[in-house]
Structures are given as structure tokens and as C-alpha cells.
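It is worth pausing here to work through a concrete case rather than discussing structure prediction in the abstract. The textbook approach is simple: state the sequence, then state the predicted structure, then interpret. We follow exactly that order.
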Amino acid sequence: MKNDANQTPAIAAVLRTPFYRAAQIVTLSESIAAIICVVYAFAAYRKMFSLHLNIALLLYLLYISCFIHAVVYSISKIYQLYISFFTSNPCHMFLPRTFYIISHNVIVFGNTGVFNTLAAMVIERCVATVLVDTYERRFHALGFVLCSVVLIITSMELGFGYEAVAGEYLMTNSVMHP
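Step two, the predicted structure:
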């Protein structure tokens, strides 16, 4: 692994400070609150609005991307807190390589999925505005096409960044990028 062995005790000391642990608890609380908000919004509002199928599909994809990010982020924060409190060996303060690669890639997939879905929603709304007379009758497949494009582009973005993530670096946090 490419981290300097002399830095390991210093990094472990930082990861055990009350400020680091408090920041981890705050971010964990935020991500759990995000899970609750996404689930509540999806459950409460999915049948209240009469949205066109295209925007509804993109909205569901946005909910799924937010939910994926919040769940995996919460799991990684819980694991990082566990390491911070219950690991005595400084060398074990780093995340296991497989856990880091999986959690980082899923978090990145959720984040880029959110941005790409929002861009697709803007495109869908522009098409709906420009073609206002014929949009309701003729563009039912646009939502499926945009969802497919979002998933393909998000997967490609993740694939292009995988080489750096799968490197030989030791990481202490799932959202860190080498």
C-alpha cells in the first residue's frame, strides 16, 4: 500500500479525536435524516401529484439515486465510527480495500446519478416547453430514453474513475478520492 508507515500513528491519533468523532456523528445523523426524508417524500407524495409519465420516471430515478447515496453513506459512517472507537492497532484504522472500493463507487454512483438525473429533468422540461402542443400525445418514450441515458452516462463516469479508486492507497473515509 502507498501510505507512509510513519504517518499511520498520526493519522490514527486524528481519527480518535473527539472533533473527528463528533463530525462523523453529525454526518451520520444527516445521512439518516436524508434516508427518512427521501422515504417520507416518496411515500407521501408519489400519488398526490398527477405528473406526466416522463417527469415521474425521472423523479423516481432521482429518489432512488438520493436513497442509494444516503444508505451507503450511512453504512460507511457507521463502520468508520466503529473503527474509530473499537480499533486499537493504528494500522487497522484504514478501511479494508474492498469495502472502500465498493462503498466509494456506490456513493459516487448515487451522487453522479443525482446530477445527471437533474440534467435530464431540465432537458425533459425544455422539450415539454418547446413542444407544448404535441408533447402530451407524442413523447411518452422520452422518460424511458432519458432514464436509460442517465444510467449509461452515470455508469460510464463511474467506470472512468475506477482506475484511480482501485489503486493501492489506504483510505480512512469512503468519500475520499485518492
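Step three, interpretation. The chain has a mean pLDDT of 85. The chain is about 75% helix and 0% strand.
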